[in-house]
């Protein structure tokens, strides 16, 4: 056949290797990623005047509830750190993680109308979610920084450490973790839509398995290993150690987290890549 | 040596019926338990059987089966076939929205596909922002859009409103902007679904013209799906006729259209069509269009009948059903609208055949499309656009042996001329 000698630029077929994740293609579509994030940014600003203010109200109210519940009633030992700073630190980074995860887990369902009409590397969508999530995170993080500055320089009750510099890396780790788990779930929710409810509920429970409202040091010795299995524990402890100068943080924790999260992320990408090719038939 | 742009080899696409679609884990578990206990599947949809395979208990449908073709570079290929023939599936596979079950496409060049215009348009954003976002979704780089921005805006004709959120646009402006972005994609292969069914006539002409330029002057390969035979004839030089998931005819465009029309003028089974909207309480099952007798084709000035067979499993009374029939011409212009709501009364009984007929067909020779729309108790029950195509052949409407050129009028009416 003379045609077979022709160099094809692309071959569309049913079978492809499990690991054929086309990262070069994702890179080629980086402008789309940027424009999707920009879209989220624009639509966010075009909301009601109260829109951005909710970003402050929500963590503040949650913090208030936690202070009453866990600080006053349960009296969890938070190592003499001011309660406002302690709870706000947990809430700020937990919000980023949980919201990214929730959105990613329904990415196929939410974007079915676009995915059904145009091809682009589907990985762009979950990526745009974690980037857009940073916007809200930055607003809430600013609030947290104000609180930290107040307690450092006015009250002089907390002492930030050099680990503050690890923040970008911690955020990256959380984003990768949310991507990994989120993509695994998103692949499952294309077939089983009721898993979304399980996930919402699961995230709530997972919060209690993460040192959000308590420090690891407050855990009984025999239960600590469970908490240490959670890759988020190292991140939260490191974050607190950096900004509040308290907690039982060890460098090895963050290394374990990094390793675990990397593995989960790769599994997520592979599963997502497999499902993206024919999910349109099941949605 | 010929340059092949797309080579399709043994393309098949299989869809599962019944087995998918429960969509929840509890339902799937329930189904497994029922199966283990030897009972029937509790979620298999009634009426979901498929005529095409007819192999008894098969739960699989071949939406496409063993499709082979090659398309040369610079060809403009019209893909024609009735509803459910597999046209959309073929385009979806080529657009990589879903993958084939077997076979492969070998492609030479970048594919841009337009299954829809305005995918990803966000109503809150301005025209300018949407051009960028939509362009990027379609695969353009930002620099590429920058370069073509003025051209896109000029083509769309919405310069004045380019910084207004598109939610304030009229639907026509919206479509024009969306098409303008798509029309400026730089790709060697362009795949276009029936996106031209929207917009006003002037803009449609502009779009068709642009597409013509794309294939004829720029030498790009175009795949075009349409029910609009005149558009296909104008734009394309090759044709592929699909029928029940197989290629029935591949050849030049005139032959393809002839082939399609020959097969497609009499009647159609609509139950398997997916391209419909509505609750489905009562559905159109079959449409038969014929002339003086069931065996004759419609002819101008001769008796004409459209028979609609309904799938009325719930025994809905005729009195609760309202239904409209619209006849469009080849380029989508609305020619006739008929409706049961215009009649004095509707019989108060249950049945499943509704017939519209006229003693003398008022349509001039040409090809027409029927769109059907039905409500049950004022709720949309079934709506199939361009459900069937039929051809009206030349007839002696005025009994004078003379005829009105089809270009002058689509409709023929009785009238008198008086001299005084």
From TrEMBL, chain A:
One of its GO terms (molecular function) is ABC-type transporter activity. It is a multi-pass membrane protein. It is found in: Cell inner membrane; Cell membrane. The chain crosses the membrane at residues 53-74, 80-97, 127-150, 162-185, 197-216, 254-272. GO terms for biological process: lipopolysaccharide transport. Belongs to the ABC-2 integral membrane protein family. Keywords: Cell inner membrane, Cell membrane, Membrane, Transmembrane, Transmembrane helix, Transport. Residues 50-275 form the ABC transmembrane type-2 domain. This is Transport permease protein. One of its GO terms (cellular component) is ATP-binding cassette (ABC) transporter complex. InterPro entries: ABC2_TM (IPR013525), ABC2_TM_bact-type (IPR047817), ABC_2_transport (IPR000412).
From TrEMBL, chain B:
SMART domains: AAA. GO terms for cellular component: membrane. It holds the Pfam family Wzt_C. It comes from the Bacteria. The keyword Nucleotide-binding applies. Residues 44-269 form the ABC transporter domain. Gene3D superfamilies: abc- transporter (atp binding component) like domain, P-loop containing nucleotide triphosphate hydrolases. Keywords: ATP-binding, Nucleotide-binding, Transport. SUPFAM superfamilies: P-loop containing nucleoside triphosphate hydrolases. GO terms for molecular function: ABC-type transporter activity; ATP binding; ATP hydrolysis activity. Belongs to the ABC transporter superfamily. This is ABC transporter ATP-binding protein.
